[in-house]
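This part of the workshop introduces the protein records we will be handling. A record pairs a protein's sequence with a compact description of its fold. Backbone structure tokens are a discrete shorthand for how the chain folds in space. The question running through the whole workshop is how a given chain folds. The record below serves as our worked example for the rest of this section.
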Amino acid sequence: ADREITANIQDSCLLTCSLFAYLGNLIIYWYRCSPENGPCNKDWNEIPIAQVKNMTEKIIYYPNLDIDTNGALVIKKLLPMDDGVMFICYATKAYVGRKKFTTILNIAKGRPELIPLCPPVIHVIEGMDLHIDATVHGYPYPWVAWSHNKVVIGNKSIENNEASHIIRNVTVYEGGSYSCFANNRYGYDEFTVNVYVQGIDFIHI
């Protein structure tokens, strides 16, 4: 490949294709080739994913893509399917010829990071909804588990960064310590919140 870049999952990404100094009378085609489907330097399915002609006429074949009039490919949201993929730009200029530029795109990998969006101590009245809000970042997508007083109460794989725990019509029995854990093969993160539920019998109007 001519270039290899790394970007974060779910971010947007711009892939340039600077093959000619002057962009007039130029047609640029973009292709993608996943190594898992075979070598990209041999036979591969040359179906374009985007193209632009003479800096004005744009054609986009996938909704998650866009292309600038200068030929740069825009991936609106990086997905797991984009990891390790070779993006190939072909630029054809009248009376000059055809040039090729390749970019391998890697998605950054690392341990999860939990970000609490609530205070470490929460006071709530019985019968109200309890929100313990948090987000999680990391790739590969982490597994997130919640525990109440050291008893696991749920776990799931997180793909949208949302790691909050919500209890409707909370009772006094649901007060206590809540811990959130996130892990993938690169490591883990955790945080704890203490919840105090005030019973309605003790509320004086």
Observations:
- The longest strand covers residues 187-198.
